[in-house]
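Entry:
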Amino acid sequence: MTKKQKITLQTPMAQILTTESAREVLAQHKVPCLGCPMAQMEMQSLKIGDVCKIYGIDAKKLLADLNKTNK
C-alpha cells in the first residue's frame, strides 16, 4: 500500500496487509486469521469493511488507526 492512500471500508485486506504497521494495527484490533494460510486465499477478495461486520470490530476506530499509520 502506498503512503497517503486513504484506507476505506472498501479497501481490500490484501492491500492493507502489505505494510507491517497496518498488520500491527489489525492485530491490536483483534482481527483474526492474519497468519492463517487458508485465510490468505480470501484476503484478495475480502474488504476491511466485510471483516469488521463479520467479526464485530469497530470499523470507524479501526479505519482511524489504520489511516494514522498510513501518513
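The chain has a mean pLDDT of 88.
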